[in-house]
Amino acid sequence: MKIKVIVPITTKGFIDPTREEAEKFASKGTEIDVECIKYGTASIESAYDEMLDAPGIIKVAEKAQADGFDGVFIDCMGDPALDAVRERLDIPAVGPARATMIYAADLAHKFSIVTVLENVIVLEENLALLLGVRDKLASVRSVEIPVLGLEDKEKLVSALANESLKAIEEDGAHAIIFGCTGMLGVADSISNALKKKGYEVPVIDPVAVAIKYLETLISLGLMQSKKTYMPPPEKERNILERL
What is the pTM of this model? Predict the structure, then answer.
């Protein structure tokens, strides 16, 4: 199967690390192609960023379907433009936020999300409400490291471990979700740090979960309901032609 991973920002430096992470969890024979958007923002840390990036995401997603890809993964924990993409495509499209919350809600009584900045907390809480798992969300915490600063792995691991521990001890979380797909390659470190404190809880990498979830949908011949995500009515729309 062929999966298109859309990095929904303009920063090309995320392409190779994202490909490596996705291929690490993809099944043998799954082809992963990663692409950034051409116009938009350098990172996503607000609803404003999501809106500015949405046309670029839709354009890449539409081209992926035309090019014969079997599914699309929008690589951002805000699930930007996911509803719009699901309306437009006749192949499955997933975002990591909803996918990881489904897993966490099943595996644990309560879960917490540890994200990048305080700006993102309301966005994640609203997604939990939309998905219907708000009662399972113990908290959303932030490490106060911007997306473009996540390459400092030592700092990231320290902050993630600290906030994850607080989520468990202060907020009642029984599972941890990374609140940014740019938090790459650190799940084992956080899991081990929590085990040393006596907490054996799921630590969920959103890229890993989304890739496996999308593979499952493709394998089962499932996709988003067209009663829920109905195709947009035909009319003149010229914005994508201008990108």
Answer: 0.95
